[in-house]
Structures are given as structure tokens and as C-alpha cells.
Q: What sequence folds into this?
């Protein structure tokens, strides 16, 4: 019997977050953990070809072998480039500042 490790799989939308705790065999990959968690049934928009994965905020490849207490995070694709978003916010705050 192979050793089991405890891991978590997390996915979040602005209005709903899910964190699944699992015990999986040592040697399980991040992608396998996502599939075992059944989180794709809760969020059918998850596509492992498009969504990137990470462990505690660090991007990983789907074939990364997990370790005890890892938290696999499923990241949503960006809808706006973060630099563009900051630029827009700066423009708005500058415009608002002129109107005072």
C-alpha cells in the first residue's frame, strides 16, 4: 500500500470559493489531484488546458508531483492585463482629482 498524503485543491470566483481536502497516494500529480477532487463538477468552466495551476501562489506544471500539505490552486484566465488595469485606475483617479 502506498503512503497517503494530505493535500487541498482550491478554486475561487468572486462570489464562490471552494477548498477540497483530500488524501491521495504519494506520487499524485497536481492535475490528478484536481480530477480526484471533483472540483470540475462544481465549476464546469474549469478547463485544465486553459487554467493554470499553482501551489501556494507559485505556478507549476500539471505533472508536478505533490507533497504532503500542498494546496493546489486553480487560476482563472486573466480577463484584463494587470498593467492595463492599473493604467485605467490611474487615469480615473487623475480625472477625479481634477474635478475637485
A:
Amino acid at each position: 500500500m502506498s503512503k497517503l498524503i494530505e493535500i487541498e485543491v482550491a478554486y475561487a470566483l468572486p462570489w464562490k470559493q471552494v477548498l477540497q481536502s483530500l488524501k491521495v497516494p504519494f506520487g499524485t500529480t497536481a492535475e490528478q489531484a484536481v480530477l480526484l477532487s471533483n472540483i470540475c463538477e462544481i465549476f464546469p468552466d474549469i478547463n485544465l488546458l486553459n487554467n493554470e495551476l499553482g501551489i501556494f501562489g507559485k505556478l507549476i506544471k500539471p505533472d508536478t508531483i505533490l507533497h504532503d500539505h500542498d494546496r493546489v490552486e486553480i487560476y482563472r484566465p486573466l480577463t484584463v492585463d494587470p498593467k492595463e488595469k492599473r493604467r485605467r485606475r490611474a487615469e480615473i483617479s487623475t480625472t477625479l482629482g481634477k474635478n475637485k
